[in-house]
Fold this sequence. Notes:
By secondary structure, the protein is of the alpha+beta class. The chain has 2 domains: 1-79; 88-208, 2-Layer Sandwich (Alpha-Beta Plaits), CATH 3.30.70. The protein is 52% helix and 23% strand. It has helices at 8-79, 88-101, 146-159, 201-208; strands at residues 106-111, 115-117, 130-143, 163-173, 187-200. Strands 1, 2, 3, 4 and 5 form a 5-stranded antiparallel beta sheet that branches.
Amino acid sequence: MTRFEFDWPYVRRHTMRPVLSAVVAVVALAGALWAHEHQQARYDELAANRNAVHEDYDALVHQRRLVDRYHRRYQRFDDLGFIGRESRLDWVETLRTTANSLSLARLTYAIEPQIEVIPPVQSVLGGEDLKIRASKVQLELGLLHELDLLRFFDELQVNAPGLIKVDGCELNWEVEAGSRLNTDANLSASCAVKLYSVITSDVGREEQL
Length: 209
């Protein structure tokens, strides 16, 4: 063996194990990096799904709150008789009951047929989901004093079915009011009123049957 000749068996014997260890370490590192990237991608996917679920949940909660809020409003309107077919008999009965409770000297009325009203704002759902209808009512009342008219409409708005809108009233002194009895009318009132109701799609289908 010369002075500069390598002892290859000796080198192989003492370097094989470190080389194999290095190869195994490189393979393990590559596997770990691949697994890390795979798990990171999986984590990102799950995080995105979780965020989407949270957004859907928040949207569902918001929609539920809107449903609850507008359902309460719908229920109040339904209790007022604003939603559904116009109950003309109940309206007339309420007119008479209110006039009697206030001891009005006179009450006459004329109710025109219902007409469909174009709403100021269209339904967000579109179609024929809601229809607004109105009846024009002309009232003639005999009053002892002006406050009777205000009391009359206050009670009427509370007790009458539907939504009432007073377009206008004209007051006139009765002739020879000073010579009348206390139970007679001192004033006459002529009022133009509209009675509104809303027909929903389910009620509209029932009307067509």
